[in-house]
């Protein structure tokens, strides 16, 4: 759910900023200031605002996922050739039809690329937040195995994290082949 919240808000923000230059001009300085701050560094502030628990964890993970999705969606929307949009408008496309027939397919490869980065960022931030104070999860398992010097358990957990990372990348590769086959590099 953390990934879906941050990813969908990031995709929506990127699409809006890509289509509304004034919104982009207003939001860009704020987003540029927040983006480089390590998301785990924001955790104490978020915990002070939302309390200790799942709400603060969800907020920090969502924030970590938001930026890759927003930046890639914005880049995808901005890279659409204006001629395509003009032709579609000349043929009467507007609103949802313009979005679903031109903007979404044209920006989908960049959105999927952002999804790949966002999934890995979400995994990273999730594990980091679990290390800092959770009682369960992979991050907590890493910390506990380190405290009791169970190196076998520590390495096994790291292997599980690697498998999750590879699985996320394979999932996005599959989604790209299924929904944006024109963007898949067929060269070997």
Write up what this structure looks like:
- By secondary structure, the protein is mainly α.
- The protein has eight helices and no strands.
- The protein starts with a helix and ends in a 9-residue tail after the last helix.
- The mean pLDDT is 90.
User: What would you report as the Rg, rounded to the nearest angstrom?
Assistant: 19 Å
Helix tally equals 8
Beta strands, count: 0
* Large-scale geometry: flat
Order of helices and strands: HHHHHHHH
Strand content: under 5%
Main sheet? none
Q: Compute the separation of the termini in Å.
A: 36 Å
By secondary-structure content and strand pairing, the structural class works out as mainly alpha
Give the proportion of residues in helices: over 70%
Poorly predicted segments? none
The chain-level mean pLDDT equals 90
List keywords for this structure.
single chain, 188 residues, mainly alpha, 8 helices, 0% strand
How are the SSEs ordered, and which strands pair?
Blueprint: H1 2-19, H2 21-34, H3 39-50, H4 54-78, H5 82-90, H6 95-133, H7 138-147, H8 151-179
Helix pairs in contact: 1-2, 1-4, 1-6, 3-4, 4-6, 6-7, 6-8, 7-8
